């Protein structure tokens, strides 16, 4: 994807906070653009995003995909999904770095004030489920690998991850710097152990083992890659608004998609291709079992890895949810984090991690059209600087609905295709066509009527 030209935002000096207080170093700026004086360097924002997809869940998904498609076709599906995410998240990040605004504030320009509340509430709620999924997966993973009791482990993990999210963007940056190197080092160790009994040639020639009638289609596997991070990817502005400009925001996003995401999925793919996965059909390339039982030091490192790794993505998702609901309710992020975390913890204790396929389907169908509409609307010529409107803008909402409806149809009637890509394209086309129709010149009768009234003829309608 070509990088946009270097650009800088035009913002006022540090904006006063709620109740007129000046912006402080710990301010999260949920209700206004991040001032230039508070923006963060590329390495800091990159660490937030780069560590995000370096998660054990991606090893699971990478392994499941290769188990179903074989290594060569599976890696093709993984690469295509990563490229789709890279273009999507990168473009949305450019908007965020250019303006310094949260997702909710950017969405208000496209959907209108009330319409943006609908989109923001949907995404801020969906991402709570992803937080719950990762918290639950922490307990399930440590139970399977080491026999830890599931519910107490889930409770401990939930408390730790809430604390990280409460600390804000700085803590997310720190845990990203911890989680990503741990994943790379222990992933490399797992691959080395897996290749003790298999050669690289065995991995490359692996043809998959899914039963003929039950194997996932290529398009479904691409959707799995896209859906895994499409929710927080759509809300990327909550992270990349801290970038100094649009170009650095794009670069920060690209460190995650495709780079870190591809590496994380590749580890699971190789583990399954080498025949070293315990349950490749359901647990994919979960490599924790390869690390445990090989001495106290490696086992201890594996435990730290699980908490840092799954904690990174959990805290990111909780931060997304709290910033989103903070924009909707006027309550600060730090006040919301404990309450939202408690809700997510309750969902995790109910066993949400056992339904990840259904969860990914929901994300792949309903979320991508939102970002497609935002990009089509705000990257159009003359869109920069357009203020948000109150109420609803019907065309963007209709485009979201059409994109989601067609993606749902493809999911049930054409599983060989990628429903996420269909939803993206359909929503973008409807938004583009609707905007063009809304700006179409009016006919001669309207011009004659304007002339009779003594008013200047209007050549175009306002954007719908």
UniProtKB/TrEMBL annotation:
Topology of this chain in the membrane: Multi-pass membrane protein
GO molecular function: cytosine transmembrane transporter activity
Protein location: Membrane
Biased composition, class Low complexity, residue ranges: 453-464
Keywords recorded for this protein, A-Z: Membrane, Transmembrane, Transmembrane helix
Gene Ontology CC entries for this record: plasma membrane
Sequence intervals crossing the membrane: 48-69, 75-97, 118-146, 152-169, 174-195, 215-237, 249-277, 297-323, 335-353, 359-376
Domain of life assignment: Bacteria
Record region (Disordered): 1-34, 440-464
Keyword Cell membrane in annotation: no
Pfam families linked to this entry: Transp_cyt_pur
Annotated signal sequence range: none
Keyword Chaperone among record annotations: no
Family: Belongs to the purine-cytosine permease (2.A.39) family.
UniProt protein name: Cytosine permease
Organism: Streptomyces hoynatensis
């Amino acid at each position: 994807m070509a990088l946009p030209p270097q650009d800088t935002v035009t913002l006022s000096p540090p904006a006063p906070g709620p109740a007129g207080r000046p912006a402080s170093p710990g301010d999260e700026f949920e209700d206004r653009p991040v001032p230039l004086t508070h923006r963060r360097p590329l390495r800091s924002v990159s660490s937030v995003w780069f560590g995000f997809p370096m998660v054990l869940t991606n090893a699971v998904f990478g392994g499941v995909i290769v188990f179903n498609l074989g290594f060569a076709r599976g890696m093709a599906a993984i690469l295509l999904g990563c490229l789709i995410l890279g273009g999507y998240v990168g473009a949305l990040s450019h908007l965020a770095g250019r303006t310094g605004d949260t997702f909710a504030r950017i969405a208000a320009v496209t959907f209108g004030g009330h319409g943006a509340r609908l989109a923001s509430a949907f995404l801020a709620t969906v991402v709570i489920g992803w937080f719950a999924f990762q918290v639950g997966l922490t307990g399930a993973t440590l139970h399977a690998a080491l026999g830890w009791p599931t519910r107490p482990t889930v409770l401990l993990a939930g408390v730790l991850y809430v604390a990280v999210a409460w600390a804000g963007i700085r803590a997310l940056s720190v845990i990203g710097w911890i989680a990503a190197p741990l994943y790379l080092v222990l992933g490399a160790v797992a691959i080395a152990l897996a290749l003790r009994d298999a050669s690289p040639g065995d991995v490359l020639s692996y043809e998959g083992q899914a039963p003929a009638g039950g194997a996932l289609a290529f398009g479904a596997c691409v959707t799995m890659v896209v859906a895994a991070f499409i929710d927080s990817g759509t809300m990327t502005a909550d992270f990349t608004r801290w970038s100094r400009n649009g170009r650095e925001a794009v670069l920060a996003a690209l460190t995650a998609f495709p780079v870190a995401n591809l590496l994380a999925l590749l580890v699971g793919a190789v583990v399954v291709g080498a025949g070293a996965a315990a349950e490749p059909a359901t647990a994919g390339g979960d490599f924790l079992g390869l690390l445990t039982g090989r001495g106290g030091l490696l086992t201890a490192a594996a435990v730290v890895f699980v908490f840092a790794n799954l904690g990174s993505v959990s805290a990111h998702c909780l931060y997304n949810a709290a910033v989103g609901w903070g924009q909707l309710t006027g309550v600060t992020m730090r006040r919301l984090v404990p309450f939202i975390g408690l809700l997510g913890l309750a969902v995790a204790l109910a066993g949400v991690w056992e339904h990840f396929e259904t969860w990914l389907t929901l994300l792949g169908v309903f979320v991508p059209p939102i970002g497609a509409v935002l990009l089509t609307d705000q990257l159009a010529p003359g869109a920069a600087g357009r203020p948000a409107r109150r109420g609803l803008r019907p065309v963007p909402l209709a485009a979201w609905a059409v994109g989601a409806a067609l993606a749902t149809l493809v999911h049930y009637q054409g599983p060989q295709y990628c429903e996420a890509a269909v939803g993206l394209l359909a929503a973008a086309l409807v938004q583009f066509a609707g905007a063009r129709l809304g700006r179409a010149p009016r006919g001669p009768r309207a011009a004659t009527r304007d002339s009779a009234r003594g008013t200047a003829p209007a050549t175009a309608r306002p954007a719908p």
